[in-house]
From TrEMBL:
Keywords: NADP, Oxidoreductase. Belongs to the short-chain dehydrogenases/reductases (SDR) family. It holds the Pfam family adh_short_C2. It comes from Streptomyces himastatinicus ATCC 53653. It comes from the Bacteria. One of its GO terms (molecular function) is oxidoreductase activity. InterPro entries: KR_dom, NAD(P)-bd_dom_sf, Sc_DH/Rdtase_CS, SDR_fam, Sec_Metab_Biosynth_SDR. Residues 16-217 form the Ketoreductase domain. This is Gluconate 5-dehydrogenase.
């Protein structure tokens, strides 16, 4: 059972502990900031510690943790750091990602495996680490948010990216499966599927006039997204506003996949 909340409290994350991977840049930095603004204590993880420290300087609720999500010992240290300091981890945002080669013919088996390691295997292991301790009586509800992509739902053609698209589609399957396994324990698992947003990952795309026009032409709202336009979807999935929502894919893409 869940008690109704006043509208102003619906998105509050006061008393919650959140982990955000890939928080040194782009969408992840924004996600860490938004969760902290909603009241969560946030452990911001990535390999570039200097960037994380800058982010932490902007909000005392953000704590930097150097972490390569493809390394088992780093993932364990991240979860243990947060648990040692606050006693619990309530929100996991699996956001870190790598993009692979564009042409399938250029992507070696090792390169393909590396992308899947960061984008799919690491989120699975992090989710397991977070969910391994039972959410005790009175503990905050637990929410895992896997950052997938519209490219987990539809083709990237005429752009390419076999490992990236496979990893993002895999993340959607993983989301449904973990939601099924962990629903009885009250752990919710959902995916966020963004469309095109300007970040380091998409710098070449938006930097090229023809590609940028292609994004505009094929998006129903005729533009790429601004980072802050994922704030509402993130807060919905992280908070009690989505207490009866699990195994779902929340697409925020200006209408790209509605065509
Ligand atoms: N931008 C878009 O249009 C778009 C669209 C759909 C989905 N997405 C998804 O949204 C998420 C964020 O994308 P973005 O555009 O913000 O990407 P980005 O600007 O390239 O940032 C990627 C982040 O992941 C981190 N990262 C990469 N490999 C890592 C590793 N091995 N261990 C730890 N951290 C690692 C990077 O930090 P370090 O280099 O410091 O480790 C960086 O903070 C990704 O899951 C992406 O697939 C983005």
């Amino acid at each position: 059972m869940s008690a109704p909340l006043a509208a102003a409290e619906l998105f509050s994350l006061r008393g919650r502990t959140a982990l955000v991977t890939g928080a040194s840049a782009g969408l992840g930095a924004r996600f860490a900031t938004v969760l902290a603004q909603a009241g969560a204590t946030v452990y911001a993880a990535a390999r570039r510690l200097d960037r994380l420290k800058e982010l932490a300087d902007s909000d005392a609720r953000i704590h930097p943790v150097a972490c390569d999500v493809s390394r088992d010992e780093d993932r364990t240290r991240l979860v243990e750091t947060a648990r040692a300091a606050t006693g619990h981890v309530d929100i996991l945002v699996n956001n870190a990602a790598a993009s692979g080669e564009t042409r399938a013919e250029d992507e070696s088996p090792d390169a393909f495996a590396d992308v899947l390691g960061v984008n799919l295997t690491a989120p699975f292991h992090l989710a397991r680490l977070v969910a391994e301790t039972p959410a005790g009586d009175g503990a905050p509800p637990r929410s895992v948010i896997n950052v997938s992509s519209i490219l987990g739902l539809v083709t990237a053609a005429p752009l390419g990216g076999a490992s990236y698209s496979a990893s993002k589609a895999g993340l959607i399957g993983l989301t449904r499966e973990l939601a099924g396994q962990w629903g009885p324990h009250g752990t919710r698992v959902n995916a966020l599927a963004p469309g095109w947003f300007r970040t380091e990952m998409t710098a070449d795309l938006f930097g090229d006039e023809r590609s940028a026009r292609w994004v505009e032409r094929n998006t129903l709202l005729r533009r790429g997204g601004d980072g802050h336009e994922l704030d509402g979807a993130l807060l919905f999935l992280a908070s009690d506003a989505s207490s009866y929502c699990t195994g779902q894919i929340l697409t925020v893409d200006g209408g790209w996949t509605a065509r």
